[in-house]
Amino acid sequence: MKPERAIGELTGQDVVDLRRLAGGDTAAAFVARLADGQEVFAKSSPGMPGAAEAEAAGLRWLAEPGAVPVPEVRGGDSEWLVIEHVPESAPSQRAAEELGAGLARLHAAGAPAFGAAPPGGPADAWIGLAPMRNEPVEDWPTFYADHRVAPYARRARDEGALDSATAQLLDQVCGELDRIVPEEPPARLHGDLWSGNVHWSGGRAWLIDPAAHGGHRETDLAMLHLFGCPHLDRVIAAYQEVAPLAEGWRERIGLHQLFPLLVHTVLFGGGYASQVARAARSALRA
């Protein structure tokens, strides 16, 4: 279906202007101006069943506590997602501090279980171009080992992107998760919180492109550390003021980064394998 028609049907308005955006690795993306003058952002996800539904459910779930700005979902179906358009602006220290405090409140809003999908969201979701299974599990170590580390480690090894020594390191880490990670209740996670999914606009930091699920709150913060984030020190300081992290959280950053690093290894090849090995070794030292 052509973008104009899809956006028009999902919003109930005529599209009077449409421009395609460059970049992005998962979908065709557009900004459309509607007949009422409002602008919306729309993207399609062909070949990724459930992706649009999962993202829409995730955005609504993250918006529910009112803790961090999240674009409003304006419409969606099996292929298309239409949301509020949020024009980009420069990051600021104040916005970073508000983000940190807001993330603490968002995580505290909780989830029904580790691995729980957002209400109305499919169990089979996506993180970038990689499929991701959300399966409710009673404890975080079992969830992380069985549904985040093992499937991607197995695929990376089978495809020759991960050597047997690193695979054995990952098995060892999974066997020691109970020792390494302090027990906490399920947090409401963004789930793919790298710097590109923190969208700075109008003096605020917005959350976009979630892979939302119930998980350990340190995971979102570890993702922010993976590829950097403007004013990250202020984000963390503000988070700590609202909800202090358990002792030793910095030493566990590598552990929580194993999942996104394995996803990158699966998607982009063995260039990330050395980072996986370093993260695994750091996890075992935590």
From TrEMBL:
Domain of life, per lineage: Bacteria
Entry keyword set: Kinase, Transferase
Short name of any one Pfam family annotated for the protein: Fructosamin_kin
InterPro entries linked: Fructo-/Ketosamine-3-kinase, Kinase-like_dom_sf
GO molecular function annotation: kinase activity
The family this protein is said to belong to: Belongs to the fructosamine kinase family.
Name by which UniProt lists this protein: Fructosamine kinase family protein
